[in-house]
Amino acid sequence: MDAYKQSASSLLDTYTSFCFEVLIMAVKELTILVVCSLIVCTGSEIFTSTDKISHLFGEEKFLLDAFSLYIDAEEEIVKKMKRDLLLLQLGTYSDPVDPEQIKDPVAAFILLIRLRSEWMSIEKYTSSSLSEYNVYQTVLEYAEIPQVEDLQGAALGLISLQELYKLYPHNITKETSLNAAQAYFVGFVAYNENKFQHAFLWFLYSLGRLTQYSTVTENELLRYLSDSAYHFGSLPVAIYFSQRLFNLDPTNEEVKVQLDLYRFLRYQKTSNKDIFTLINESSNSYEALCRGETSKRQMALSCRYSTGGGNPRLMYAPVKEEVEWDEPRIIRYHDIISDRDIESLKNISRPLLSRSETIGGVTNIRTSQSVFLDEGYPVVARTSKRQMALSCRYSTGGGNPRLMYAPVKEEVEWDEPRIIRYHDIISDREIEILKNISRPLLSRSETIGGVTNIRTSQSVFLDEGYPVVARVNQRIADITGLSMKSAEHLHVQNYGIGGKYEPHYDELDTENDRIATFLIYMSDVEIGGSTVFPKVGVALKPKKGSAVLWYNLHKNGNVDLNTEHAGCPVLRGNKWVANKWIHEYGQEFRRPCSLSYWK
Ligand SMILES: O=C(O)CCC(=O)C(=O)O
Ligand SMILES: [Fe+2]
């Protein structure tokens, strides 16, 4: 692994290699040589010979000339530094004004690479700085510079997105493309993780983007392409790339031997795997749910509130809407007209009906009778304005006075386990405050096994010392009717590139266990990032300001095995959530226990 890190590190170093040091070293050595010949290394005593002393005039001139040369060289370097600075500044030209806009994982990856290589180039200049007061060194102490591990982690994030969502390099780089060296780096990371198909696809992408300025060579790419194909089990492809490599460098004995070996092996094998096509190998429920292959049942269960884009008549009586199909988009609106109004409309229409026509007049294409009714009829006006009761409920938390005037919109997402979504329970302002408090405190989230790739996010627990946290906790207590006495502090989480939390249970198997989870979505996520329950086939899409609640334990205290859940990899977006884990102690009268063996 260390060797791997080292090679990755040196690979990156080459991205930013500058040859100015060669020049400065040469001039420095020249100066030293001159000084050396004058003072120390001659081995002679100058002072004992007037002739030698007089000779010094000439030597002094030589010394000053060398010094002048040295200054010229330093000036050249300053000029080069200024040129490089300009180039680096140009590179930031198209950056988003709002850093939160970094939603594209590839753009985030490039930013990490850019920052690292910027740092490396500045570091090269400043480490040999002539200035006594080297500001940059001080700046460095405070700067957060992406490490090689960050780049590897980000590349792995991209690879895991590809795996789960079955994406080819050209899919994932649709919005932001990678240059040959960057793509090579992703391939290299995949290769070292033995993900040979993904490695191959990235090397191929890199080959297609190779230019004369690339810091990766065609030789390197061909070698890795043939190696990856061989390891994946695609011998003809391995032979093809080895042959290309051999054509480039016919003197390379090693390639020749390899080519012969592949040819020999090819005759032994009867079938070869197709390395160019990603196949959907897993029928894994977690992955399918993350891809949005949600069960029909949940679609039918879920409802959305629409306020017609802020239409005041719908603000307080939103319509329940359901997406029946995506292309063409077909939406069903539920309960938009009462039975009584339907009867009145029928009664008004009956005497007025006449044969419906099409463009061709009365034909057998359309065999019905119809009539257009204007808003002169109150029922028509009323219906088009719509003021029906809702199927998605308003909850006042069982009469909790704090919710009487601001009832919570609640929606049943699933029945067993019961998963309820509460809408608009936290304002955008509160979310911003929570994020601002959390940002400097975030650290890598862990699981029972410590820091692992099962959970790629950063998080922090916030106590009630922050008024906003106290307010949010109180709201959770009001909505759930549960005691917060033994609950954990509010846990704010932000996911990274391809950030995910693989299937797990929240319960900890302790005496005072996590009875319920209240998960607040502090952001929308454009693609991916759903919370999914693989055992029951539920996918909950993050919706900023909403929260979901489920019980991890049955009333008898046993863990509800259907509550296994996961946070899907974020494909596009910046996912923030806050968890409130509510424990058993304190709920004795609020959620009474059961003696049942099953529940
Ligand atoms: O982010 C999510 O969607 C789920 C988070 C979660 O399950 C957890 O933090 O325990
Ligand atoms: Fe969880």
TrEMBL record:
<dbReference type="InterPro" id="IPR013547">
    <property type="entry name" value="P4H_N"/>
</dbReference>
<protein>
    <recommendedName>
        <fullName>procollagen-proline 4-dioxygenase</fullName>
        <ecNumber>1.14.11.2</ecNumber>
    </recommendedName>
</protein>
<dbReference type="InterPro" id="IPR045054">
    <property type="entry name" value="P4HA-like"/>
</dbReference>
<comment type="similarity">
    <text>Belongs to the P4HA family.</text>
</comment>
<dbReference type="InterPro" id="IPR005123">
    <property type="entry name" value="Oxoglu/Fe-dep_dioxygenase_dom"/>
</dbReference>
<keyword id="KW-0560">Oxidoreductase</keyword>
<keyword id="KW-0325">Glycoprotein</keyword>
<keyword id="KW-0223">Dioxygenase</keyword>
<keyword id="KW-0408">Iron</keyword>
<dbReference type="GO" id="GO:0031418">
    <property type="term" value="F:L-ascorbic acid binding"/>
</dbReference>
<dbReference type="InterPro" id="IPR006620">
    <property type="entry name" value="Pro_4_hyd_alph"/>
</dbReference>
<dbReference type="InterPro" id="IPR059068">
    <property type="entry name" value="TPR_P4H"/>
</dbReference>
<feature type="domain" description="Fe2OG dioxygenase">
    <location>
        <begin position="486"/>
        <end position="584"/>
    </location>
</feature>
<dbReference type="Pfam" id="PF08336">
    <property type="entry name" value="P4Ha_N"/>
</dbReference>
<keyword id="KW-0479">Metal-binding</keyword>
<dbReference type="InterPro" id="IPR044862">
    <property type="entry name" value="Pro_4_hyd_alph_FE2OG_OXY"/>
</dbReference>
<keyword id="KW-0847">Vitamin C</keyword>
<keyword id="KW-0802">TPR repeat</keyword>
<dbReference type="GO" id="GO:0004656">
    <property type="term" value="F:procollagen-proline 4-dioxygenase activity"/>
</dbReference>
<dbReference type="Pfam" id="PF23558">
    <property type="entry name" value="TPR_P4H"/>
</dbReference>
<dbReference type="GO" id="GO:0005788">
    <property type="term" value="C:endoplasmic reticulum lumen"/>
</dbReference>
<dbReference type="GO" id="GO:0005506">
    <property type="term" value="F:iron ion binding"/>
</dbReference>
<dbReference type="Pfam" id="PF13640">
    <property type="entry name" value="2OG-FeII_Oxy_3"/>
</dbReference>
<dbReference type="InterPro" id="IPR011990">
    <property type="entry name" value="TPR-like_helical_dom_sf"/>
</dbReference>
<comment type="function">
    <text>Catalyzes the post-translational formation of 4-hydroxyproline in -Xaa-Pro-Gly- sequences in collagens and other proteins.</text>
</comment>
<keyword id="KW-0256">Endoplasmic reticulum</keyword>
